[in-house]
Amino acid sequence: AALLWGWLLLGCSWGPGPPGVYAAALSTATYVLDDAGGLGREFDGIGAVSGGGATSRLLVNYQEPYRSQILDYLFKPNFGASLHILKVEIGGDGQSTDGTEPSHMHYENDENYFRGYEWWLMKEAKKRNPKIKLIGLPWTFPGWIGKGENWPYDYPDVTAYYIVSWILGAKQYHDLDIDYIGIWNERAFNSKYIKLLRYTLDKHGLQQVRIIASDRLWEPISFVLLLDSELRGVVDVIGAHYPGTKTVPNALLTKKKLWSSEDYSTFNDEVGAGCWARILNQNYVNGNMTSTIAWNLVASYYEELPFGRCGLMTAQEPWSGHYKVEAPIWITAHTTQFTQPGWSYLQVDGHLEGGGSFVALTDGLGNLTIIIETMTHNHSQCIRPPLPHFSVTPQRATFYLKGSFYMVETLQVWHSRLGFESGNSSLFQQLHPVKVWNGSFSLDLNVDEVYTLTTLKTGQKCGFPEPPPPQPFPSSYKDDFNIRNPPFSEAPNFADQTGVFEYFINGSDPGDHVFTLRQVVVQRPITWASDADQTISLIGNFQWVNMTVTCDIYIEKQRDGGVFIAGRVDNGGIYVRRTKGIFFWVFADGTYRVTSDLAGEEILMKGLSGVRDNAWHTLSLNIQGTSASGLLNGYPLWENVTISKPSNGWAAIGTRSFEFAQFDNFHVE
Fold first, then answer.
1. d(C-alpha 420, C-alpha 425), whole Å
2. Which region holds residue 162: left if phi is over 0, alpha if psi is between -120 and 50, else beta?
3. Which residue of 12, 326, 382, 549 is most buried, as measured by CB atoms within 10 A?
4. Locate the Glycosyl hydrolase family 59 C-terminal lectin domain: which residues (predicted)?
């Protein structure tokens, strides 16, 4: 029915037939596509970010076949989003939006290229599309790099060595070739460091790795590049974030490739799809940007963390297997399935007279792809920057094909209509091909539509059977961490918000606690956000009210070490410092506390516990209504503490400071 409807919609606008019924009311305009006078800029691809941070956290423990299905929708060519670029965070142990990602070097004498999930994700992407481009970018750095200062540029040789080791490790341990490397996400750049990074890359035979700077704004990087010819020689791409489809004169004067190296970041409903459709075209039409990269790839983090569901698709329920292929996936396909990095844009103005835009690209071998979008203002607002008002009206567009495209006889047609009033969208449907008569064709365009017209016949809208229905996080959940060769360094579903919690094999314990979960960050990282002064990892369902959290704990730090278990935890991500909840702390000095905040300042109860360091103890926290109580090693330690806010939240574990500590036999009910 959708096909037929689309066919009827178009039926009256192919070639020289009678004009459409509504033709009288439509504004009409003509556009010329010609390569005779040369081509526009080279196209570098459409991509997405995993990281910045911990945005793929819950993806890794989806069961098959669902995990592979999600990856196919993202990366498999001519299937779904068919992404050209995958950009990942180089984990630095610090909070980078929705959690922390582990570094390959927690400490100066430490190297491990199997932590976290970005290595795995890059390999899965390459498995599906060997030509996908890979980008690495740090948000945070381990503390040792700054030697006590919260700054990565005081010892630029150390920072360059650290970043290059990540690139070398990607190749040595995973056979991954990193194509581009960034400087420091949305923070200051340092010209001396960038030059040293290029030198270090070249010294290690990594001449093919290109440098992007500065993943922030167009300025001051563009101005500095114009002043400093040596820097201009080592920066290959100027990457700006959330440019609002605009560039600046200095950026154009550098003659560098211009990318929107992070964009979108918008809730993935129909308005998010409209935002994405508009900027995918207009970043080039208005701003000469030849790549647009979405934050983020897939919303695989607890939805109540910051920027919930701001991914191209949603996969936040590994316990149920439920995921959702959201509209932005199919908007992406309109460009990615019919272009490739290395194609060129045609030199066209790209603005439609009735509002909206179009781009045209060619592979230089006779293929032509035209992408048209007619997104209205209110249906295409991105999260940032604010969008000035504009209007879009139904219109008839006539395209004249000239130069090497004059011989094109038919174009395949793919169509999406974002249905805001009706609530049902038609996404990425193949319509009847358009016949080109005497080098021209016409289209009647309505508002909030995307069309791809292309000589390529390889497009496909693929899919899988419906995944399982959504389910809340299990109301009874246990993990004893007893796994000898874990597939990932972190236990499933735990979402680290400050610090890093990893599987650990306890060589000194032949008893019940050989396999544990250990907090391993012992120095405050060079931060990107406001990490807490305590470490914390969340788990469970944000809607939980009444719960019992039980965990075996082991304080490693003498004298002032401490750990907690918690419930009704209400915050995380970039807001982790202001986290409230019910926190049950025990300390190496034999005391305990109950607080209503992570900072440990709002004390509800305190006293002596007899807990000591380097011994195992079992904590249990019971929260019912407005009352909480705590057990130590099975015996009541405190009871009937009155609690008011927060009224609901996650369970959590953590430590008093950046210190080693172990956890075992976690259980939440």
1. 8
2. alpha
3. 549
4. 496-669
pTM of the full structure: 0.96
Which pair of structure tokens corresponds to residue 550? 């039980």
Residues of the chain with CATH 2.60.120.560: 477-668
Which residues 6+ apart lie within 8 Å of 61 measured at CB?
318, 488, 492, 493
Question: Are 367 and 410 in contact, with CB atoms under 8 Å apart?
Answer: no
What CATH number is given for 477-668 in this structure?
Answer: 2.60.120.560
Calpha distance 657→563 (Å, rounded): 9
Residue 468 burial (CB count, 10 A)? 12
- What distance in Å separates the CA atoms of residue 238 and residue 215, rounded to the nearest whole number? 8
- Beta strand 501-505 pairing with 515-519: antiparallel
Active site includes 466? no
CB 58 within 8 A of CB 431: no
Let me know if 111 is a catalytic residue. no
Q: Which of 93, 52, 61, 89 is nearest to 501 (CA)?
A: 93
> Catalytic one among 101, 118, 262, 502?
262
Residue range 110-149, pLDDT digits in tens = 999 999 999 999 999 999 999 999 999 999 999 999 999 9
For the domain made up of 44-315, the CATH class stated in words is alpha beta
**Which residues, in sequence order, are bridge partners of residue 477?**
668
| 609-648 burial: b if 16+ Cβ within 10 Å, else e | bebebeebbebbbbbeeeebbbbbeeeebbeebebeebeb
Sequence-distant (≥ 6) Cβ neighbours of residue 474 within 8 angstroms? 319
Look at the chain and count its residues: 669
CB distance 397 to 352 below 8 Å: yes
- In three-state secondary structure terms, 311 is coil
Catalytic residue of the set 186, 304, 353, 669: 186
pLDDT digits (tens, 9 = 90+) for 406-420: 999 999 999 999 998
